[in-house]
Design a protein that fits this description.
By secondary structure, this protein is an alpha+beta fold. The chain is built from eight helices and 25 strands. It folds into three domains: about 1-260, Immunoglobulin-like (Sandwich); about 265-435, Roll (C8orf32 fold); about 440-485, no CATH class. The chain has an eight-stranded mixed beta sheet. The chain starts with a strand and ends with a helix.
Length: about 475
């Protein structure tokens, strides 16, 4: 992985001469007569060309704009799903300028164009903050080529990753940005090969400052050709850990008066931000909890036994709402009284409860397996999406999570086993530590073969024995059935 920084500092501005997405109609007869991609004859579809471009758009009140263009060859009906485009947008974001065409060859071998109608764009609200926009190109058939483009208008300065690689091969993929110099980003690349196009430079006179000379932007361009399809493997971590991609992390923004807001400074600053943003400074609320636990737990002398008993008590009491982070402000009293909450809320309560009973504990933030690896190249907040607890008892380390009633003491959900997490030590300084499970997970089979006395029949029996995550998976599968039939 490579990383570099683009540095920006500027006043109010007006953008002009921006790059527009390619016009539709970039089709030729050879693309329609292509029957198979020789470099990957198993491919059901092939990206002929795609490009993405991010800039600040004067026409949309200086919001960030992301233009995307793609042209895709569909070989067979297994590739028909590429004709349905699904876009997720965050609150206050919008999708504009959707244009699309399907190309087929008619009986006389002439190119037929079927234009997409904008009344076929469907919107669905996924949650309070997220919406889904879906559209499907018309008249899809074997051998057709689809072409589309759209724009995402966003009030946020976050630049989404550009994925050069997907589940189908690509002939050409390009991404570029023209960023005014009052934004500063860390930019990372992930690729095991040299980029075919790579250019970073200052673009002169791309910003018009009222009453002053025109200003500059920082231009970034990356491109790859002949990109193979990404093949998933069993037990693989998040696919984005391995896909060719371009990543942006906002460092700072300088406003019209020259005041700079820093989003990521040092890891020490990041730790403080995590404490304030995700845990609402509810990390020292032990007094309230001390009087809430049964005396039978508080009177246990042995630290490990007391911690295990408390952990089981909270497991039975609290119910996880299947959310990782809470949108509402976290308050220990409310979490305890409501008996339910998000993962960060439940484990924040567990952390305070353990400390209330003199069990030294720490909050740990991490990234789940599907979310991908946390970068350590520079301070980052957006990479984290989950929180657990670390307890230190008799010089032994135990990672804990009270969201899952099937977990034993010292186990965390399998999704949390994704390398290192950030242990938030608010007194002595935070640090990285490998997230591991205390017990091993094993799956054993005993197979017994026996012939009858005449040796003309063979009888076999198979017994399995599961431990750790294998056992948890089986318990979750069969326990509801057993409870129903008791």
């Amino acid at each position: 992985m490579k990383i570099f920084v683009i540095v920006c500092c500027l006043l109010s501005f007006c953008m002009y001469s921006q790059k527009k997405p390619p016009n539709l109609g970039r089709i030729n007869i050879n693309e329609l007569t292509l029957n198979v991609y020789q470099k990957d004859t198993t491919a059901n579809a092939l990206v002929l060309e795609e490009s993405g471009y991010v800039f600040v758009d004067k026409e949309n009140n200086y919001k960030f704009r992301r233009d995307v263009y793609r042209r895709i060859k569909i070989f067979n009906n297994t590739g028909y799903d590429k004709a349905t485009i699904t876009l997720n947008t965050y609150k206050n974001e919008s999708i504009k300028n959707i244009k699309a065409i399907t190309y087929n060859l008619d009986t006389s071998n002439k190119i037929e164009k079927i234009y997409f109608s904008n009344d076929k764009v469907y919107k669905k609200q996924l949650s309070e903050d997220w919406h889904e926009v879906t559209f499907t190109l018309p008249k899809i058939q074997n051998g057709c080529v689809i072409e589309y483009r759209y724009s995402v208008i966003s009030p946020y300065s976050k630049i989404d990753d550009w994925k050069f690689q997907s589940d189908i091969p690509k002939l050409k993929s390009d991404f570029s940005t023209t960023i005014p110099r009052n934004w500063k980003y860390n930019i990372r690349t992930r690729s095991d090969r040299k980029f075919d196009r790579k250019n970073t430079y200052v673009k002169k006179n791309c910003i018009e400052i009222p009453g002053a000379e025109a200003g500059d932007c920082f231009k970034v361009t990356y491109g790859l050709d002949n990109i193979p399809a990404f093949k998933s493997e069993d037990y693989m971590l998040a696919k984005k850990n391995y896909m060719y991609r371009l990543m942006f992390e906002l460092i700072s923004y300088t406003n019209i008066r020259g005041l700079t807001t820093k989003y990521t400074k040092t890891w020490k600053h990041t730790d403080k931000t995590l404490r304030k943003r995700f845990f609402d400074n509810q990390v020292t609320k032990t007094r309230f909890l001390k009087n809430k636990f049964p005396d039978s737990i508080k009177k246990i002398v042995d630290d490990l036994k007391r911690a295990k008993t408390l952990y089981k008590h909270l497991q039975n009491k609290l119910f996880w709402n299947q959310k990782y982070w809470s949108k509402e402000r976290l308050k220990i009293r409310e979490i305890y009284e409501q008996n339910s909450g998000s993962a960060d809320a439940i484990n924040l309560l567990l952390y305070n409860a353990l400390n209330a009973l003199n069990i030294k504990s720490y909050l740990v933030v991490l990234s789940t397996r599907k979310n991908g690896k946390v970068t350590k190249l520079h301070p980052s907040i957006s990479d984290f999406n989950y929180a657990i607890v670390k307890a230190t008892i008799n010089n032994e380390t135990y990672f804990l999570d009270a969201t899952d009633k099937f977990l034993s003491f010292g186990e965390v959900p399998f999704m949390c086993l994704n390398g290192e997490g950030r242990v938030l030590d608010f007194d002595n300084g935070s640090y990285w530590e490998d997230i591991t499970s205390k017990d091993s997970s094993t799956l054993r089979y005993n197979i017994d073969f026996r012939f009858n006395e005449e040796f003309d029949e063979l009888h076999a029996s198979i017994k399995s024995r599961e431990k750790g995550y294998y056992a948890i998976k089986k318990e979750k599968k069969y326990l509801p059935f057993l409870m129903k039939n008791i």
